[in-house]
Specification:
With 105 residues, this protein is mainly alpha-helical. The protein contains 4 helices and no strands.
């Protein structure tokens, strides 16, 4: 009986640890992998374009490729913003227009 009483805190700690791991595993991986983010998609695309490049050459290419994508997004933002201003849109109408405009490819 004394052994059981002495081991009780350890058993409780193990049970709680198992419960926490079980819950975190369920919330972290609900069964299907999540969709890649825009940044991850850019990385995948630039990685494919990089091909067999290695070392510093690959690093420079990836940096340029990813920067070009950012510049393209900034240009798109400027264009959409100018169109929204030209149309005199404000508040919710502007937000909706900007959202739709930026989604266009």
């Amino acid at each position: 009986m004394k052994r059981l009483v002495n081991r009780w805190p350890h058993c409780l700690a193990l049970a709680l640890g198992a419960a926490v791991l079980s819950v975190s595993a369920q919330t972290a991986a609900p069964g299907q992998p999540s969709e890649p983010t825009k940044q991850q998609n850019r990385m995948i695309e630039c990685n494919k374009q990089a091909g067999d490049r290695k070392g510093d050459e690959r690093k420079a290419f990836m940096k340029e490729c990813l920067t070009d994508k950012q510049k393209a997004q900034q240009e798109k933002m400027k264009t959409c913003n100018a169109e929204a201003s030209q149309q005199g849109l404000a508040s919710d109408a502007r937000k909706k227009f900007m959202s739709e405009c930026l989604r266009k490819q």
